Amino acid sequence: MQPETSRETPVNQTPDTPATAEPAPPPALALRMARGAGVAVGLGLIFAWFGVYQTSQFPFAERVIYWTGLMLLGIVSGSLISPLITERLMPRAHPAVQVGIASLLISVPITLGLIAIEAASDGTVAPPAWWLEQYAYVLVVTVLLTSMAWVMEAYAKRPAAALPVATPGAPQTATASPFLDRLPAKFRTADIHAVSAEDHYLRVHTSAGETMILMRLADAIRELAGIEGLQVHRSWWVARNGFADTNRDDGKLTLKLKSGAEAPVSRTYAKAVKDAGWL
């Protein structure tokens, strides 16, 4: 349940850019729904087989229908809610925050489905306290499944293309680096200013703003070979045309990016920065 598209016009795209003759890919929503249907059926069979949540008292066929229906409801909700959170409402938020907010919202229709099923089975509506209890159970499972889906989609985006030959000083383009294919659509034609590591994620600083992706800095630097730049710190890589000025304060050297952010230069990489003529 991963960000993928944006309505904003790519930064470097012009009306005269010729279209590439490639077959149109299936809509992202359709792919998510198709994958989700398969996951829902699989999870429904597993939950039914083990009689999870005291459903073992019902016939197996009824359990399959019960759990598959709830899983499908969750998949449909997730396919609609997750892109809304990651692409529209919170595109720059940390993935953990995106997953958390999406899970809170996805759990609502699933809980309502549980309430409706229970009401239909015995003709009574459970008290609000029971609703909250079920919501808590649903939320735990939803967080796990949403996190797994996010990781799977992030892994699926890994490009299989061979690395390009580095061309120092060449302008950045959408085909300059396989790294760009990992970014949400609005960032793929933007100029990359820098990449900084934050835990297991990378913050990508571009001319179109910032975004977060799940990746190691070492792997990112390898894929950024087509863009002239240097690693200036154990947690920072900076593009040659990504910084506007240098600053030295109390002996600490930093590179000021065009976006206004500052990248620290550690002693380990200071000589390489100087030899490259950046100072």
Write structural notes for this entry.
Strands 3-2-1-5-4 form a five-stranded antiparallel beta sheet. Helix 2 packs antiparallel against helix 3 (95-122) and helix 3 (95-122) crosses helix 4. It contains six helices and eight strands; from the N terminus they run H-H-H-H-E-E-E-H-E-E-E-E-E-H. By secondary structure, the protein is α+β, with helices and mostly antiparallel strands. The model is unreliable at 1-27 and 159-176 (pLDDT under 50). The chain has two domains: 28-156, no CATH class; 178-275, LytTr DNA-binding domain (OB fold (Dihydrolipoamide Acetyltransferase, E2P), Beta Barrel).
Summarize the structure.
Helix content is 45%, strand content 16%.
Kindly list the characteristics that best describe this protein.
single chain, alpha+beta, 2 domains, 6 helices, elongated, disordered N terminus
Helices and strands in order, then pairings?
Layout (H helix, E strand, L loop, with lengths): L27 H23 L9 H30 L5 H28 L5 H29 L35 E7 L2 E6 L2 E6 L2 H7 L5 E5 L2 E4 L3 E7 L2 E6 L4 E4 L1 H9 L4
Antiparallel strand pairs: 1-2, 1-5, 2-3, 4-5, 6-7, 7-8
Helix pairs in contact: 1-2, 2-3, 3-4
Q: In whole angstroms, how far apart are the ends? A: 43 Å
Regarding quaternary structure, what we see is single chain
Q: Regions with pLDDT < 50 over 5+ consecutive residues?
A: 1-27, 159-176
Total count of helical runs of at least 4 residues: 6
Going by helix content, strand content and strand pairing, the class is alpha+beta
The average pLDDT is 76
> Strand-and-helix sequence, N→C?
HHHHEEEHEEEEEH
The proportion of strand residues reads 15-25%
Biggest sheet: strand arrangement: 3-2-1-5-4
Radius of gyration: 24 Å
Please summarize the sheet with the most strands.
5 strands, antiparallel
